């Protein structure tokens, strides 16, 4: 397989790289320090069409594919992960379920705003007491006439409380299957719906310029037509969405890992110790060489998973491999970059301090590393 980029893909990568360096980099440190959401950056990303990259033009998208989104995520994450995860969650978790499973009316209602970046959507799967056990969902929705009545809570939901959040898609127990298991369905809940409460934002270790909240639903009523996809197919739908999302998270992790390489090279050339740049020392050279090795191989892993997905081939195992490997090496590279920077690596004014704080969640979010190993093992027949 040839993983060299086409001219169009190269142009996209370069334009997003320039945007990240010229627009995101100058302002993100202050947003990160103040825990504020970068609305102006998001607005400009919308104008660039980044939120519509993998969607058809008939819905207001750019007519690209999922690999194009991954290229954009990698380049943004080379500078900052808060902005990158905002884009990733808005597209793969927010708009994609509606694009994949929505009715034509639902698509017409929501996609134009979501694909333009004018509005964001959240993905309400995780609950406070379930974590990786999504099948343990406790949130319930009961059909009362022509309305769903929702009660329950969700945790760690990205893009759920911004001024431009339009909706959250929520998984809920809607009945019992013939075998006694829970019937899980997905329901669209617009923001501002009575009974839908967004808690204050979390105090997080990293991703401090992104938006994350706990959500509660107390007799929250929405029209029966807000059911997303077939009743009882909610769990299967979100498994598909998560498989795709793992490729996107892998791309984001590769971007962070490559950003660590970028910053380490820059610092190793500038920092003088004992009369010469520290980059002249073989110990530093080998650290950075190993970091580049890890970023390169992780990039090939997500390229492969994306290629299989776009070819219509099975990709679950490859997506899990890409996500597991990329998140692991992102943590490794962040640690090494911080070590290369010494005391300055512990200062928030240096990007590697953000990278270090942002890297750990990549081994947890959208399926922990342990879950990825379970997926891989099962796909191997174990």
TrEMBL record:
Pfam families: Acyl-CoA_dh_1, Acyl-CoA_dh_M, Acyl-CoA_dh_N. The keyword Oxidoreductase applies. Its cofactor is FAD. Keywords: FAD, Flavoprotein, Oxidoreductase. The keyword Kinase does not apply. It comes from the Bacteria. SUPFAM superfamilies: Acyl-CoA dehydrogenase C-terminal domain-like, Acyl-CoA dehydrogenase NM domain-like. Residues 123-220 form the Acyl-CoA oxidase/dehydrogenase middle domain. Its EC number is 1.3.99.-. Residues 6-118 form the Acyl-CoA dehydrogenase/oxidase N-terminal domain. PANTHER family: ACYL-COA DEHYDROGENASE, ISOVALERYL-COA DEHYDROGENASE, MITOCHONDRIAL-RELATED. This is Acyl-CoA dehydrogenase. It comes from Micromonospora lupini str. Lupac 08. The lineage of its organism: Bacteria, Bacillati, Actinomycetota, Actinomycetes, Micromonosporales.
